[in-house]
Amino acid sequence: MSVNTFGRLLRFTTWGESHGPALGAVVDGCPPGLELDDSWIQPFLDARRPGQSKFTTQRQEPDQVHILSGVFEGRTTGTPISLVIENTDQRSKDYSEVAKAYRPGHADYAYDAKYGFRDYRGGGRSSARETAARVAAGAVARLVIPEVSITAHVVEIGGDAIDRELAAATRLNDSQFARSNPFFCPDPKAVKRWEKLVDEARLAGSSLGAVVECDATGVPAGWGAPLYGKLDADLAAAMMGINAVKGVEIGDGFAAARLTGEGNADPMRPGADGPQFLANHAGGIAGGISTGQPVVVRVAFKPTSSILTPVETIDRAGEATEIRTKGRHDPCVGIRGAPVVEAMMALVLADHKLLHRGQCG
Amino acid sequence: MSVNTFGRLLRFTTWGESHGPALGAVVDGCPPGLELDDSWIQPFLDARRPGQSKFTTQRQEPDQVHILSGVFEGRTTGTPISLVIENTDQRSKDYSEVAKAYRPGHADYAYDAKYGFRDYRGGGRSSARETAARVAAGAVARLVIPEVSITAHVVEIGGDAIDRELAAATRLNDSQFARSNPFFCPDPKAVKRWEKLVDEARLAGSSLGAVVECDATGVPAGWGAPLYGKLDADLAAAMMGINAVKGVEIGDGFAAARLTGEGNADPMRPGADGPQFLANHAGGIAGGISTGQPVVVRVAFKPTSSILTPVETIDRAGEATEIRTKGRHDPCVGIRGAPVVEAMMALVLADHKLLHRGQCG
Amino acid sequence: MSVNTFGRLLRFTTWGESHGPALGAVVDGCPPGLELDDSWIQPFLDARRPGQSKFTTQRQEPDQVHILSGVFEGRTTGTPISLVIENTDQRSKDYSEVAKAYRPGHADYAYDAKYGFRDYRGGGRSSARETAARVAAGAVARLVIPEVSITAHVVEIGGDAIDRELAAATRLNDSQFARSNPFFCPDPKAVKRWEKLVDEARLAGSSLGAVVECDATGVPAGWGAPLYGKLDADLAAAMMGINAVKGVEIGDGFAAARLTGEGNADPMRPGADGPQFLANHAGGIAGGISTGQPVVVRVAFKPTSSILTPVETIDRAGEATEIRTKGRHDPCVGIRGAPVVEAMMALVLADHKLLHRGQCG
Amino acid sequence: MSVNTFGRLLRFTTWGESHGPALGAVVDGCPPGLELDDSWIQPFLDARRPGQSKFTTQRQEPDQVHILSGVFEGRTTGTPISLVIENTDQRSKDYSEVAKAYRPGHADYAYDAKYGFRDYRGGGRSSARETAARVAAGAVARLVIPEVSITAHVVEIGGDAIDRELAAATRLNDSQFARSNPFFCPDPKAVKRWEKLVDEARLAGSSLGAVVECDATGVPAGWGAPLYGKLDADLAAAMMGINAVKGVEIGDGFAAARLTGEGNADPMRPGADGPQFLANHAGGIAGGISTGQPVVVRVAFKPTSSILTPVETIDRAGEATEIRTKGRHDPCVGIRGAPVVEAMMALVLADHKLLHRGQCG
Lengths: 361, 361, 361, 361
Known about the structure:
Chain A is α+β, with helices and mostly antiparallel strands. In chain A, about 30% of the residues lie in helices and about 20% in strands. Chain A has a five-stranded antiparallel sheet, with helices on one face. In chain A, strands 9-8-10-16-11 form a five-stranded antiparallel sheet.
């Protein structure tokens, strides 16, 4: 199976390096007749775009998407949708030192071991820039699941977590708050703290990790499959496949391992519109299949590996050296992970909607 | 793509319910010429088998595996290997009440929503019994990667974690210790505590969660792929696809999100046999590709959902009722998860070894 | 992708050798709720079963199928359906000579070149016996497409073709005629001729090729896909994947290459129930998608390679020798191809029905 | 599985319509380190390009390919190779009448039945223009199999076949002859006849079918797989997936069905460099696996469906009408099929080389 393709019925393939002429995605299996043009996709790319605050990389990319196929007279045709985003701000010269030595925490050494050489410009294929293609594909996927609403928030940076009650209240009062601050953060107090925290890391040439939480409401019961195509297994692959991700939880995740069976139960009651659940420890998925509750995923992003502090490493000849990364980098790559997590959630859910319809009618 | 199949080049498909006549796996894509007979697989099944201590379900299954194809004169032929395990201790009568109402925490309601009805005997396809087929398939996968050594331990039960220093020392002195206690636990003191903990849960009709950690040493640098076929993404799907799993971490996992870039770096030094790493926060994988360090995965198992305490639920007609599960169940399903996690690790690594050889020679 | 699996949404994997203990298929992705038990499948296996006339191999196999999973209380559950058929009449001793030298026309040499050794008992995996597993899987597929009626006939043996007008008339008068003669032949006069022809070949230790034609009526317009998942491309793979097949045609096939555009057009007229076509040169498929006309496929089977006449060959050491095959073999393997072609047609159509429903609702 | 993707380990996905801004292919799984730039691919596209003689469509497209990813400093990196070809000569106005009524023989009606509407500009996705993307992908595949030499010829047009002896002699004397005439024809006398034949069809607004034969020499024994991944099954799917193809044969194909077992045998003798075969009825494939002989495939192209003669049809409202196609079309689409058949042969063989290496080392 193609290692640059994701999905089963709704599938997408991405291509492109951070410093090539362009990158893109081909989305295949999209239902026909959905209204689609560039302007639907662009806002999702804009949300992910770098250079919008001092808390993200200063690389300036317009990230303008072009649809090259699969749409006719404003509607999807059912054939492959080719999405292309040109690279405009590449500055390959920033990466001259990287060509010689392996950056610890980066894929440099592993790539070289695999392929015998590597595209050292900005990490080549393993650049976080690839996620732009996913976000574009995810925008298409959202059209397939209009019944679902997907929101991802950053809930922790550098170990400093949001206040969940405050976040819930804020979300209720101002549903756009999290989208209007540079951290995709639903807690106004955390925003203040994180501004300081991330800025300090940035000025120190250091970096921070983050946790992104994503919920999808409106998913009906019945999407997914019992075992190797479990909805949660596909979500885990989707999220772990994002650059810099090191952990994935569904529902209570690791905290569930500390509960008893009683504490972890999600009791059910009759409700006006089908069953009501009195809790959602399961994160909306049981036995690999959606239960009708919100699907909840939590994703851990490691701190950006590119830091100004010199780190011990070796060069291609195997000699000891040290490296510090001078390019323009995100002090906290997890922040821009929020739109990417949303995109992957949309792609997995849309795929499973079609799979369910295919098998069960 | 088949939702009961896992893998890319080395693939396996499992079939069977806990209360049907048998269950099994078909392993496809295995290299030819490997020595294989039933006796190679059986010990792995024995390690997973229930009923060996009071800490696991009292269901008694010999779990005897039979190879029905793909082996000739003691060697794999390169054609599909069909593995069958008969079910002998089924007692369907235990499940009469389950047929009427949905067990919270189980897949009962989700299955019904998906398929319109369900096999209510022991959870049918979503029974943990399916993992026997994975363990058998995993034993075949180990033949493909003789250079790799895989060990999974239970490192936490009910929130009570092992002492990692003691565990490391014990592992050094007695490499079989963890295999010789009923918890796959490398820390002798934790064994004592867990005996009490799990027994109390069992007697109370309650259940506990657990965390399993698995390391694979001997994986060379270069297995995996940059993005949608990332080694860690495939591991995440593999582990999240195991029954009762709610979280997966690679290397430091969620803890990495609390580190700085400096703290998370794995510096490299020249070594006698290639590069040496001074740390392994990455868990042996960078950019989706193995680095040559041990591959480390951590997996969270929720507490068994079947408990004696009545839980509020609804029946198929949507009416309020409550349910307590009277069958024979594991008080901590995570314990027997250790051999399953090992099997999935073996299957993913063997698959990526073949993929790497296919693409890169 | 697995090389022993066929299909996209409705997929099946076969396993087993002609001289192992059993062979079987796992059918995955079947819709839930379909009525299924052994007795539905058995007649299809019986139609293919050898030893029923002197015109097929005298190997005696009851070919009794057992469903081991995926069915509960007489209905499919939506989970994998495991089908097993035991081998009972194996007589491995017939194949002693085959172990030493390569039989020309068989896969012996190619297998050895690929795998480094081979299961020489009856051709191992490449035995036509494997098609029993396909036929069983095909019987399940038929349940998915009750709107479709599939019939395969042998239309030519040893270059002697049926009279198509006579066949059409016979089919109209006695729809079971073709099923009631040993050749699946719709032309009574050809039956007489073929009895003599095949018997002479059998007595001479020779063999004959055959052409099988299969039509599927009731396929609605719209199944298939424009390019790499074209309905005709999947049919071609399905049919060419049957042992001994060397050619596949859709509709007029090679004859279409001898027509002009005018002669090959299938003009359309308004009809009572949608469009009516005035011809079906296309064989019911245009641009990879069904048109609503009967889907027509023609399949060429080479003569059985096992013959009594000695043929020049080499042995494993590369030395010149000659071989004559003494086992029990079909004088015309294409005859028993008819039920297999039907099965593959059913599997492809059922798969595309689900794919179409998945993408287009 | 994606219906616009072909291949297993070396996979490609195509996208684009004849009248959109561009079309292209993404090739995934290519081994790293192969020398590649636009100039390697361009000659293959040039061979397929229309407008080079009066025997092909007068549409003028430069078909200039651009590599957008997967190549660094002139070598493949092992990551996806994105190939883009701009459409420049689109003239959508030619297709106004097509929007209203279904062209018999085209996919118009089937598309509408499937998707609910269609891109009527030049057939949209089902235009033969899509094959440009395959040819570009095939050029990459050739790099993977430098040991193999692939040649496709047109061997029959409108029922007028080449003289095989003359063709063989010509090929021996002038290996470039077939490439230097507009018909990819190896027989100089047939070239003369076809010039007249095709020109008459063109002037009459009619069209002709053709048969293309392709051989691949240098394929070692051992590529392929026994059953559902048979080398011949994948070739059949590859060829039947080309626009206008209605039949595929391997080796003797349908003629094998008219031979006896003795006549169809390919006897083997010891040779200087491994076994020698005294015939090649099998077309280089036995049991789905290459034998080391030339792989031979024959492909039937129907006559172009677009003709000037009015044909009875219906419009979208189901009313009777008639249609004649006024655009610029190939009088014999099979002619330009030769480079496409070569490309598909290269893609299948390269894929199976990698698969074989993956499984068998």
